[in-house]
Amino acid sequence: MMKNSANKDDTKIAIAQIGKYLGLGLQLAVTVVAPLLAGDWIDKHYNTGTLWTIICGVVGCVVGLYDFISQVLNSEKKTKK
What global pTM score does this model have? Predict the structure, then answer.
């Protein structure tokens, strides 16, 4: 009975540690895709080729990666404390 309880505790700890990172991938994807879609809409609405799609895509990638890296580093700092 003790062994089963220890396994449940280990599982809870693992889920708590992994839970911090589960939403990061979705957040990164949304941060990149939303500006791409906005840039595509601007290009189609104002007939500007692919100018705004490229600009918004680059901005979305930079912002998304910055946010992703900063959240991972902050999480690591909190874990070490």
Answer: 0.75
16 falls within a domain: no
Positions in the chain whose pLDDT score sits under 70: 1-6, 81
In a domain, 74, yes or no: yes
Q: How far is CA 3 from the centre of its chain?
A: 36
d(CA 31, CA 65): 9
* Number of folded domains that form the chain: 1
Contact between 37 and 77 under an 8 Å Cβ cutoff? The reply is no
Q: What is the pLDDT of residue 31?
A: 95
